[in-house]
Amino acid sequence: MQMKEERMTESFGAKQRRVLAGIAGLAILLAILPAPTCAQVSTTTVQGTVYRADGSAAAGTVLITWPAFSTAANQAVAAGSATATIGQDGFLSLNLAPNQGAYPAGSYYTVIYHLNDGTVSKEYWVVPAATTAAISSVRAQLAPATIAVQPVSKTYVDSSIAAITSGYLPLTGGTMSGALVLQGDPTSSNQAATKHYADALAATELSLAGGTLSGTLNTPNGVNKLPRVDVRHPDFGVGCPNAADPTGQQDSTCAIEAAIAWALANPQGRTYPTVYLAAGTYLISSALYVPCQMHLVGDGPDASILEQTNNGANAITVHPVAAVQPNQWTCNGSLENLTIHAPGGHLYTATLIELQNAVGYTLFRVRGSNGGGRGLVLLNSTERLKAIDTEWDTIRWPIVATGNELKFLDTQIASPGVDANGYCMMPNNCVNGVYPGYAWTGATQAVVSASGNGTTATYVVSGSPTIAPGGYFTITGLTGVAALNGTFQAAGVVANSPTAGEYTVTSSGTGTGAAGVSGATIGTQQVLVSASGNGTTATFVVQGAVTQRVATGFHRLWRVTGLRLPAFQI
Question: Which domain covers residue 452, as residue numbers?
Fold first, then answer.
């Protein structure tokens, strides 16, 4: 019995221990599990004092209603309403979930005031996410009717814009703190350029530090006063009717003279600056007086042209002035790469280039053209002239050079004694001032009779003579005596023989007998028949000691009246 009681007591104690152990384990499990929480929406305390219009504190109640919305923090708020009391001092305070930036957009609270004086009013609130907010700051308007718009002050707007734009570059410009990334290279002129685009363009330019060109280097030909004096510079037109005109429309005499005067007044060291005639045609109406110590240069005989429009005035007169160079015994100036042209032709009776006491002067690549006077004349003590690669075309007296140590290198003379229009300026071989032409021309005339005795041929021609003794003629169309046809040199010409209105021409010939003349004609070409030795009608007059003439060409010499070299030495 006693043992049974002991076993029962032991069994009850064991059970009691097992129950306590279970309770302890449950307590530990509950301690480990997280405690349940109650979710809450963050609210903003909207508060402030409500006043009546007379300034007294209002009292009453407000009814607040709202639709369902989700806050900007994505907290869902069910639709609902609430009531709050306005205290006797007008103070109102209530907690509301923020609906500023809520979804749907434009969510707002509708607030209806019921004041104790019976006044009822309505307003709309947009509540920000903040700890507190004044009633005046949450009042809003409806624009449109379903969207609440909250009026704000200028200060608020300015500060808000400043906060937004602080990270942007204003349209008026500014400085970026980071890199600007463009989509690609620009395709129009008003687009911003990428570094790649700029680098690609820069790669096509030559660095100022130097480099290698893949093409031709073209340098601008600016209109300057120095280092060479460009006659086109506008300063030289001041006080003149116009500046120098390379188009050949306006007279350039005054402007060119001003350029020469400026160069003379502004020596560079021990020399005068070069006066430059850029490519073009420059009209002048009086002589240009060029110091013999100065260089007057153009861009080439076919590029830079001076045209003298005054038929009685020299084109260029070269003369000495006070020297600034060390050697005062020589001029050392020059005319280079120019054409001097007289558009008047045989009516122009002056000299294209006249050198007066110009010792040591140089003509290089100069062309004189179309004058009825002289092309080049050396006066007084002009000597030691170097005329290199010069050309004298259609001038009555191309060169009259008197002086010592004259050097003419590659001098070309073409068609002396006739102007560019073909007018004959010679006393010999001219028919009404005009040469017949270069072929067997002249007015062809009918042959009245033709006969020969084996040594002399005699032709009677209808009309007046168009040939002088020594000239050549050609006969065509004779029949019966073939030897009387051909080209012959006239031995004699007799006008009005054998009758008035006819003339007789004789020449050497082997034909014998009388030929048939039906349809036969004579054509003539004039040639040199006399030459003068006094220089008045000579083509190239050179006088002086130690004179050199190298590679001189005369063209169409049948038009030359004479060649005089009385003291020529090589």
Answer: 445-510+519-525
